[in-house]
Amino acid sequence: MTAMTDTDTPVPMAADAAPPVPRSAMRTLYWSVRRELWENRAIWIAPVAAAGVVMFGFLLALARLPARFPAPRPGHHAVTMPPPEAPYAFAAAVILVTAAITGLFYCLGALGAERRDRSILFWKSLPVSDTVTVASKLVVPMVVLTAVTYATIVATFSLILGLSAAAAAVSGSPNAAALTHVDLVRMLLDLAYFGITAAIWYLPLWGWCLLIGGWARRAAFLWAVGVPIALTVVERIAFDTGFVAHAIGARLLGGVDQSFYEAPHPKGTWGEPHPDLAGFLASPGLWIGLAVGAVLVAAAIWQRRYRDPV
Asked: Cα(269)–Cα(271) distance, rounded to whole angstroms?
C-alpha cells in the first residue's frame, strides 16, 4: 500500500515496510563474546604477561648456562644437566596456571560487575536473552582463553627453541644445544589435548564462579572460596572424611590423572604420560562434573533474569 503526496511521489506505507531481519542466535553469541573481550583484556594480557616473565628468566638462565653446567673435561665427572624438556614444561605450567586463575577471576566478575556499575539495565534492554549472555561469558574461559593460552605456549616454545639454537651457535656450548633436542611436536599435541580436556573438566568451576559472582553483592571471591572450605571443615569434624576436599583437589588439577596415563617400562619403572581419551571419557568424574556444571550454569541464567543492580 502506498500514498500520494503533492508531488505525486509514492510513499510506502507501514504495510510495505520490509519485515525485520531475524537475528541469528550464533551471530548474537558471537557479538556477545566480542563484547566480553573488549571489556576484559586480561583474557589475553595475562597469559602473554606470564610468558614474558618466563622468557625474561630464561634469558638470564641461558646467559649463565655455560658457567652453571660446564662441558665435561677429561678425568672429571660430567655435570648432570636437567632434562632438555624442563624449560618448556616449566613455561607451559606457568602459563597454564596463570590462564586458569585468570578464567576463574573472570567468571567471578562477569555477572557481578554489570550489577555493580548498573550496566545490566542497559544490556537487558537489548534483544539478547539471558541464556545467550551467560553462554557468551562461559565461552570466554572455555574456548577463547584456551585458544589464547595455547597460542601463547606455541610462541613461547618457539622463542625458547630459537634462542637456545642461537646461543649454541654463538657460544658453542653443548649445554645450550641440548635444549634444542626436544620433541616439540609431541609436546604441543599433548598440550592441545590437555587444554581441551581441562576446559571441559573445569565446567563446574566456571559455573560455580558465574553463579556466585552474580549472586554476591560484594566479596564474591570470599564466598566462592569460603563455602567449599566450610563444607570441607564440617565434613572433617562431623564424619572424619575428606570427600569434599578430594573432589575439589581433583577438579583443580584439570583432570590430568583422567586424561593421561603412564605406561610402565619392562623394568618396573614408569614412563612418560600419554593421552588417554578413552579413559577420560570413561571417567565418572567427567560426567558428574558436566551434570553439576550444567545445573550451576542453568542457575546462573535463572539468577541473572531476576537479579537487580546492586
From this structure: 7
